[in-house]
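Session log. Operator J.P. requested a structure for one protein chain; no other inputs attached. Running the standard single-chain path with token output.
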Amino acid sequence: MKQTQIESNIIRSFNLAKQDIEYNCNRIKELEQIQTKILNLIEELRDKTIQNEQNIHKSKNVKPTIITKTVPKKKKFIASKKGDKFHTENCPYAKNIKKSSKIQFNSKLKALTEGFQACACAS
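Structure written below.
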């Protein structure tokens, strides 16, 4: 009787494995169809892009537009070696710090991690 129970368990296990394999095969087929659709869409977009580029070159009335972007100047922060606060470059307190005592930071975070507190000008 034990052997039939073992055989029955083996048969059941194989049937479950077969179902899993069939499911995965079907899922792979679905994914292949989706992949084909995506590749077709990419090809269509590529063709449309080429057509648009050709139309732009053919058109004589279209003048190219130059877009410029101004990058804001990065703020620098100043502290005194003897002090406990950091300031912006334009702060009157920063301007009073002697060159030999100045420490310069490229970010607030760097000044804060060095143990300095922000002046009202840097808040």
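Operator note: The mean pLDDT is 86.
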